[in-house]
Amino acid sequence: MRTQVAIIGGGPSGLLLSQLLHVHGIDSIVLERRTKGHVLSRIRAGVLERGLTDLMATAGVDARLRAEGFRHDGTLITYGDRIFRLDFADLTGHSVTVYGQTEVTRDLYAAREAAGGRMVFEAEDVTLHDVDSDRPHVTCRANGDDIRIDCDFIAGCDGFHGVSRRTIPAALRQEHEKVYPFGWLGILSETPPVDPELIYANSERGFALCSMRNANLSRYYIQCDATDRPDAWSDDAFWDELRRRIPRAQAETLVTGPSIEKSIAPLRSFVCEPMQWGRLFLCGDAAHIVPPTGAKGLNTAASDVNYLYRALHRFYADGDKSGIDGYSAQALARVWKAERFSWWFSSLMHRFPDQTSFDHKMQLAELAFLESNRAAQTAMAENYVGLPY
Ligand code: FAD
Ligand code: DHB
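Structure tokens for the assembled complex are given below, as produced in the milestone run.
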């Protein structure tokens, strides 16, 4: 098989890139290790920045997002018995959209299928070859067949555990990592959200987040031990713990019900530099991870895709190589800002096992400053709604 861009990974990064390239007349093939059903069963991000919703519009896949997504003009933050609101619309003139990553991925699969886009599922042993030459190719096995794809470029969109990043020789890449000493236990339940807006809670017992997918589908998270297992947490234990971490008024009105999904996510900050080698370009979780506080993972993946599809379009349209040569530097400049914001918000909101009383007082003082200072609120809101591409 031959294509212009071989895309490794059929998660949101790979699919969005494939669809944006298609809209600009560039052919691609997506290789995905799992089944489509498996990819669509993963419950992940829920808050989309304007940059991502604009990309969905450019990709021609925003009809359902516009009809079913919820615009959020602000969020609530609580600490101790205090609660305050960050008014994104007033502070920045922008808002965010609540629409699940699962739905983004579903819409992108539908668009790729409608356009006859080539996708290979259950691709095993995906291997990248001659990446530092002008004629790279990718091999894999699928449905018992050996497959070879000759291409001009390879996009590594295969997530943190993928093969693409590891194809860059170790001597040529630097990896920067911080692992946090706790996880997030998340549940999805068919109950009305406790509040129309998200609530981020710094409590004495640890972080909690009240989020949602729609009027009858809630997503809640609580900070847990990194070694906890989801099945060791009964639904009742989860709801009891959540109630203890949110303000009394919300705890009293919280509607509980059986969980329809329960999982634990580890928290990690990670960046691989550079994000390109030869004809290989990394996008999304393949190159970087943020802790989820502030919902930057999917959104940062989207900004990579934005830079890469534009660079490839410029190359194919007028032979201009400046975009592809500068991809890594351009993407990393924004990645590091998202890393800083996610690290800062995580550090502010969680209980750390080695935290001293002084450290805790610093968190509370910073939250009090944020509550009372418009400049601090503006800085936070600008990051939350998404820095410009
Ligand atoms: P992925 O979604 O990881 O997709 C990569 C794809 O590549 C996968 O489908 C995988 O099967 C495939 N693949 C892997 N290896 C290979 C291979 N060798 N060959 C072929 N295919 C391969 N972000 C938020 O903003 N908010 C959240 O609440 C949030 N929660 C999260 C919870 C969890 C458990 C995880 C893991 C992530 C979460 N994130 C969250 C982050 C967000 O989901 C990711 O940033 C986003 O999925 C990145 O998209 P991606 O396409 O780059 O990577
Ligand atoms: C969600 C996850 C986040 O990490 C976040 O900051 C906001 C919302 C969610 O899954 O809904």
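The chain has a mean pLDDT of 97. Residues 91 and 374 are 8 Å apart (CA to CA). Further analysis is deferred to the final report.
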